[in-house]
Amino acid sequence: MRKFKTKDRVLIVLITTLLVAISSAFLVNRTLQNIVNNINEEAQPNARLIHLKSVLYIVTSAESQVKSYGITFDEQYLERYNQSITRVDSTLKLLYREAKGDSQFNLEVKRIDSLSNKKFEILDELLLVTNEQSIRGVLEKVQIRVSPQDNQETVEPVQNEEVDGRFFQKLFGTRKNNDEPSAVTSTKKQTDFSYQIFNHEFNTLKKREIAREEELKAREFSLIQSNQEIMDKITSLVRELEAVEDSHMQAKLTEVEKEGSRTRITIVVFCLISCVLLVFAGYIISVYVKRNDAYKQDLENSKNETDRFNKEILSSINYAKHLQSAILPDEAKIAQLLPNSFVFYKPKDIVAGDFYWLVQSGDYTYVAVADCTGHGVPGAMISMTCLSALDRSVREFGLKTPAEILDNCLRLIIETFDGGDFKVYDGMDIALCRIDRTKMELQYAGANNSLYYISGGEPIIIKADRQSVCRFSHDKHFTNHKITINATDTFFIYSDGLQDQFGGPKRKKLMPHRVQKFLADNVNKSFEEQANRLEKAFEEWKGEVPQIDDICVMGFRV
User: Fold this and answer.
1) Count of structural domains, the chain
2) Which residues make Cβ contacts (< 8 Å) with residue 331, sequence separation at least 6?
3) Residues 366-376 pLDDT 10s
């Protein structure tokens, strides 16, 4: 069975605790949200009850409109009455929509609809009765208007034929007539006869009116009783529905309380579990912290030891740099042997595998730029071997031509690295020149590093042999080249670190043709300015890209 490390255990416990806490938070949030939703749902007004009460209110208002019309006979009350009927119809449609899917409530709505229709039928009949009763009042008003103006006593309603006769006598007897007396007498007789017939018909009509009035009053009383019964039924039905809705609301509130109780228990349980896990996690963390402190202390000790070793190594490398700098030609020597020259030397690390060499032997001045295998400390060690081989070839072996010197360096380097069991194939690429000022002649031999020079404004390249100065698969002598020079010719020898540097907008190599073009464009500048421009151009090309190799460029004019 796999055993987890302390760090992994702590991580597992923390993750588990975090998951439990997150789950608890989600559960609590969901439960609380459900409770809030239930409370919001219960807090919202019940649409059914609102519509039912609206129906009850509109029906009551319609009854008031009918009564007001019976008193004032104002047609505005009839318009409001008709509007009440329309409002009840629209509210009942809403109730039918609410009753979809609820057969019981749908049945109750139908009952209310039926009762409302009966209610309005009764109110319509009451309006008709009211209009019929108004006829009697009109006749009484006519009798009052035809009575003598100076009679201040209250006029009672007509009760018998004698009174009716006086009513019509007063109605027609007050009119003026300008005919002759005989004509008046004849007319009076005819009028008396007409009065008798009219009084008889009027009395008959009045008796019918009285009977009709009694019938209307009885009907009105019956309608009022029916109206009250219907209102009582509607009110009772609304109250029953309110009671049902209240019972539903109480049931929901009880369910909400139960849900809240279950939620509280769940929250308590999860809180207890979270507390236990947190305590356990705290214990594990404390153990981990103690062990981690010990680990940190060990790590700090190791880091201090590593820093000490690094400082020692860095100190050794810096001392090696001083030694390498001491071997390389200094500015005074360069100014003495090649006054018209510049050196652009930029190691990748503290010490470098590239080097430049300048020696005076008799009438000859030897100058070289070499690129040893690798860079840093290994390259620097190989460069010491190659420098020693060059010095021995000139001073000890007395060799004169560059090709002979490189052939001898190859032999010396192979002998040097043949001392152990491990064969070393490292060496150097080099461009070696010999300057003879008396003959104005320059001899050159190269191992992979060509000679580039400008003569009469024309760039010329003398290509090197395609082999390095190192243990090789076949023996091949280096080629010696002779060039007649003049004082205006400018020569450049360099390693491949400059042309292989990545950079520019597309992060590509600088390439030899760009290097040669730059050197040719600035050949008329002073050597100091050429060196400054070359360094600036290199930095601009490199940009943020790290330097990949040592760089050594040397330019001179004889």
Assistant:
1) 2
2) none
3) 999 999 987 77
